[in-house]
Design a protein that fits this description.
CATH class: Mainly Alpha
Number of strands: 2
Largest sheet: 2 strands, antiparallel
CATH architecture: Up-down Bundle
């Protein structure tokens, strides 16, 4: 059978590809004779994915809870994937930066709207029963979400607002991590005692967090932006994309999370102080912590009013 010109061209390109890595093209082609065709279920690993949901109770709505949080973690992975492309790009442009940030914002838009899956899709009575089997585990322990924060901004912007004046770039990473805003969810600052929730989380991830924050110290999204030429920093599309991402993550998504927690844990009442001396309202609510990834992109009045419009 006569080979078509397109086939000849493909074979030439394949030879160049495999010669570059010291592999024989004929061997690679022969291997195709014995390989199985790819299928959707093999490529997506459907069977493995659908066998990752292990309930601890017989309550049906626990399955909703498990799958919902697994979807969250997959979206967090997508966010980190996009951030890595921005922060490790060799010839970063405003267009590339903006497009990837808007991808990330769409992921968080999806996360925000998806809280209805829990708030409207689980019976409170069932949740209050199966949650007791989950203690002391918590969504607080999402390492990927913490890594998204580390990769988004300078570490000082994640320090508990009460301690920011005592932390600077010369502060050891380990000391700074002890004063991150989310420590308030697992530490009694009167005694310094940490809850098991926090101790287990740090035992599992602390060393990884320190290494990750060191890696992103000078290449996080905010640092990357500040290192761009002034004319690129001034690009309206890029600035709007950064502001949208900042507000979406630190206000819109956080408040959707908070309102869902209020519904299930407080039945609409003002949250009580959590065990261990922490106040989870002050840990989550934007108006208290003022978690802002890109403070230079907001006016003084916007910074002052941060989170107040969603109370």
């Amino acid at each position: 059978m006569k080979k078509q010109p397109e086939t000849e061209k493909l074979l030439e390109q394949l030879k160049v590809k495999y010669d570059a890595i010291g592999q024989d093209l004929d061997t690679q082609l022969e291997g195709l004779l014995y390989g199985e065709p790819i299928t959707y279920w093999d490529y997506i690993q459907t069977d493995a994915l659908l066998n990752l949901q292990i309930q601890r109770t017989t309550l049906p709505d626990e399955m909703v809870f498990i799958i919902y949080h697994q979807i969250n973690e997959l979206l967090f992975k997508m966010v980190l994937w996009e951030i890595e492309q921005i922060t490790h790009h060799e010839n970063l442009t405003a267009k590339f930066f903006s497009e990837r940030l808007m991808r990330i914002s769409r992921y968080f838009d999806m996360l925000t709207s998806s809280f209805n899956i829990m708030s409207e899709g689980m019976e409170i009575e069932q949740y209050l029963k199966f949650r007791n089997t989950l203690t002391p585990a918590s969504g607080f322990q999402s390492a990927q979400y913490r890594m998204i924060e580390f990769a988004s901004t300078d570490l000082i912007n994640l320090i508990d607002a009460r301690f920011r004046d005592t932390i600077d770039r010369n502060t050891p990473y380990e000391h700074a991590l002890e004063h991150l805003y989310w420590q308030a969810a697992g530490k009694d600052y009167k005694t310094g005692k940490k809850s098991y929730l926090l101790k287990a989380f740090e035992e599992r991830y602390k060393n990884r967090f320190i290494a990750f924050t060191k890696e992103y110290n000078s290449i996080n999204l905010y640092a990357t932006f500040k290192n761009l030429p002034k004319e690129v920093q001034g690009d309206p599309e890029l600035r709007n994309a950064m502001r949208h991402y900042d507000y979406t993550v630190n206000v819109t998504w956080v408040m959707s999370h908070y309102n869902t927690a209020v519904k299930y844990l407080n039945h609409g009442k003002e949250p009580e102080e959590a065990t261990g001396g922490s106040d989870w309202a002050k840990y989550m609510l934007p108006k208290y912590q003022k978690r802002i990834f890109f403070p230079d992109l907001w006016t003084e009045q916007e910074l002052e009013d941060w989170g107040k419009d969603v109370e």
